[in-house]
Structure formats: structure tokens, C-alpha cells
Amino acid sequence: MTVTSGEDKIKWWKDAKFGMFIHWGLYAALGRGEWVMYELNIPVRDYERLAETFHPVRFDAKSWVGLAKAAGMKYIVITAKHHDGFAMFRSQAEPFNIADATPFGRDPMRELAEECREQGIVLCFYYSHVIDWHHPHAVHNKYNNVWDYDTDSKHFPTYWNGLVKPQIRELLTQYGPVGLLWFDTAGGLSKEDSEELVGLVRGLQPDCLINSRVSHYPDMGDYQSKGDNEIPMYGEDSRAWETPMTLNQSWGFSTKDQVWKQPEAIIRKLVHIVSKGGNLLLNVGPDAEGHIPDLSAERLREVGAWLNVHGEAVYGAAASPFPYEMEWGAVTVKPGRVYLHLTSDAWPQGELLLYGLQNKIKQAYVLSDPGRTPLETTQRYDAGMDHHTLTVGLPDKPANDCMTVIAIDIEGELSVDTRLSQQPSGHVKLEWANGRIDADAKTIEWSLQIVAPGTFDLELVCFQKEGASWDEAFREGIEAASRSRRFTAQPKPDRVIKNSTACQHPYTEVHSHLGTIVFDRPGTCTLSLRSALIRPKSGFTEIWQADPVKLRAVKLVKRQ
Question: Lowest-confidence range among 16-30, 43-57, 497-511?
């Protein structure tokens, strides 16, 4: 894969969809994650001593890049310098680096750059540009080394001009073309310094992408970095975006963290993200010897095996044209073709119903079927409701234990009914980003299409952060209204959803029953919600990502 230039310089990244994040640094020696220096207030002098015995003899650039390739990943983002200030490359600007301060004595970034070129993977660097607990003059608005250094004595320009800019120059002049620079946690950085850093990168490598965390000022980067582990809602983002996610619950190597995502969950999350127009940057944390944990490697290879068969429906695919989640999986599209990604545990018996696809169908088939045996399809149109229904006859069993892809070839340019619609199950899910938001009044209103009228249980869908107070978040209650009813409710955490596709640590998906609403005839209806948790779409999602309880959606569950 080559990095393109000009207006299309981000195209390679948009097409790639899947990248490997690597959190690797001196902190791996302690096996407690990448924030260990800060969490334990380890003095700089003691932390520096770790470098005296840091000797990752098992590091093998060929093996690392080969694993990324086997997993179906198209780019690698590795921590060239994390918050501990230890450079994982040979740096003339700072002797506290892996080549000069350790018995290892090599530059792993150079070896990775050479191997990435050999295997066709785009190499990218993570660089902590504001937080640096090792440097006496680094200043962040929150996370500083206050156990070694006097905050009032810090002189940020000394750090900025003496370390950050020289090391960025090193990274962009010593390793060949760099796909992107992944900056992190810009708290307190001025707009002028942000612009200067962006200009430095543009001047050295114009084709190098920059993520949004370069600054807290909007539109500084080429694409939006979501909050850690955060998968957005349909309609939340207008810019290109990416979700950084961990395979377990830690970023850097941790001996205690053995909570691993299963391959099936990773595939579903990847497809879910791609169906919303994003990329997945999935993290591994190598140990102090330079070895990627076996459990990480095993899972990645299984994901790669699935992508080897179904990659057509992922790489270079566009987001779903439908503005809502599908209960059975997700949708991606390419010119002339629609891909339905069906999860095995939600496999429809006999047939699949899809509302809203307006094109004439040429054929449908299971993507993994080498013979492309046609599946029976039927299309119906209700002129009174302007409603299209496609029925696809399905095999008795899914073709894959995790996710089966049905390819649908269509005539003409894709045409879809983009109204928020009731699903064939009778249910409706309305995410807050797809509603009309009045931030001052703290209300959201949705317009939705009811196909099968009836009585609906109204469920509130929230993501609750570990340790967050539910009662505090909803102390003002919730108000809901439709044409048939208006009522208030005090939400309770009635049901926790296990294995949520869009929600992960440190959040849990929680559903609350608010009451019932009747829609007694088909057609266009409205539903509104008022809550103190309602806010406008954030220009910088890390801020929203930190909320203790996030209002995510309301779900109308039709009573049978």
C-alpha cells in the first residue's frame, strides 16, 4: 500500500479500515500498563533505572508486521514516545531512549520501518506531545509530574522547542514516509502551538495524516479520533473517524489483565464500525521482552482468517446508507453491491426482511460461497406508505460461526429510504444523534415511520461508566412525549446488556423501562425526550466520552 498525495491523501486510510495499535515502552518492564509511572508516583531517577535492564531480546520486526498482515490490518501505529517520556527510537534530542539508555542498543522504529516497507504495511507513529512525566518543563492541564517537579517553575517553551519539535522532526526525517502521526491528550495546548505543530508536520511530510487529538481546537487534524474504546452513533460524525480499542482492558502490557475480547466480538465490532463509516485501530501490548502476548496473536489471526474470505465487504466499503442499526447485524456498500453482515446468534430463520432498499435486485448470494449460488429474493412496494420491502431466502444455517455476509447486486445507483423506520421485528431504535436536538431545552425529537402500529414499551439505552452514580445522573428524571401520551419517569438500571457491540470497558450498556406508548396507525410519527443528559453533538468527542452516564438511544419494543 502506498501513501497518496493531494486531496486524496486520506483515501488509503479510509480504504484500510483496520489498523494495529501497539503500546510498547519502558513501562512494560513493570507489567502494570502505560500509566504506571503516574499512578505510583515513581520518581524520575527510579524510573530511569528501569532502562538499565530493559533488553527486549524477543523483539522481531518481521514477526510483528507479519502478525498485523495476517490479521488483515493495513497500518501500524506504534508508541514512539508515550507519557513516560521514554523514546522508543534513537533520538539526538533526548538520551532517555531505547537505543542509548538500554542494553538493547537498537532502534526498533527503524527495523519496523524497513519491515513495513517490505510487507506493504503503512507505518505510523504515536507521540505524546503534551504529557511527559520525565521532562521537568512539560505542562498538561491535568496530568503532570508533581512529585518530582514544581509546577510553578515549569517553562513549557523549553520542553516544546527543546524536545517535542526536534523529536517530531526526527520521526519524519529518519524513517521514510510516515502514514500518520497519532497525537494524544492535548490538554492545555494553545491554539498557536497546535497550529505550529501541524505546520511542522505538513512542512516535513505533506502526505502524513494527523489525528484530531493534536489539539482541543476543532478541525486541526485530518480525521476524528474517538474516545478510547468508543463506537459512535449513526449520524454523530461528519468527518472521517477512527475508534482506538484494546484487545483486553489495558493498553500497555499488564500481567493482571486477562479479560480478552473473543475473535467473534472483534469481528462484529470491526464490521459495526465500518458500517458507520469509521476505522478500527486495535491495540496490542507487547511485554518487556518484545513479545506480543500469545492470546493477542491467536485472536488476531482468527480475525484475519475471516477477513481473508470476507474482506471485500470491509476494505474500501462505504458506510451503511440506513441511518440506524440493524438488529441482525450491519450493512456496508460498494458501487452496485450491498453487503448484509448477519451475526450467527441473530440468524433469521428462513428469510431476512430488509426495509427501504429501492433498487431492483439482480441477485443475492452468500459471499463465502465460491459458486455464488443465487438466493431467492422477493421485492414488494406499498405505494400508500411509500414503503419498500426486500425478502431474501436464507440457508438453514449461517455459513460462518461468527458473521455471514450476504451480497446483493443491484441495478443502478444505490437508492435507499433514509427515514428512521420501524424494523421487521416491530421494534424501533432511535439514537440521539439522529434526532433534532434543542440543547437549550434539553430535548430531542425524532420523526419515525411506523409500519405495524401497536403498543410499545419505551426503553432508555445508556452507557454507564464503571463506578458512576446512576441516581446522580438521573436526579431530574426523564420526560417522554408522543401524540398519544406525555409522561415523566425516574429511570432505573433495569437490564444490563452482555456482549454489547457498541459498548465496552469501562462502560456497560444499561436499559431502563420508562413506560408504554401507543402508535395506533401507520405512517409518520414523532417522539420526544427531555433529559439533563441531552447535549449537542460535541466537536471533540473525548470530552463527551468522559461522561459518567451517556444517553445513547431510546428503543420502542413492540408488544405482541
Answer: 497-511
The closest alpha carbon to 316, from 70, 72, 13, belongs to 13
Preceding amide of 398 cis, omega within 30: no
Rounded Cα gap, residues 490 and 142, in angstroms: 35
Q: Are residues 150 and 39 in the same domain?
A: yes
Domain co-membership, 263 together with 193:
yes
Question: Please, which residues bridge with residue 377 across strands?
Answer: 392
- Location of C-alpha cell 426495509: 355
Q: Are 352 and 392 in contact (CB under 8 A)?
A: yes
pLDDT at position 375: 98
In what helix (H) or strand (E) does residue 163 lie, and over which residues does it extend? Answer: none
Structural domain contains residue 322: no
**351 and 284 within one domain:** no
Instruction: Give percent above pLDDT 90 in the chain.
Output: 89
pLDDT in tens, 60-118: 999 999 999 999 999 999 999 999 999 999 999 999 999 999 999 999 999 999 999 99
Over range 473-487, report the average pLDDT.
91
Q: Nearest Cα to 356, choosing from 384, 382, 335?
A: 382
Residue in the block written with cell 458512576: 468
Q: Which residue has the cell 406525555?
A: 486
Number of structural domains found in the chain: 3
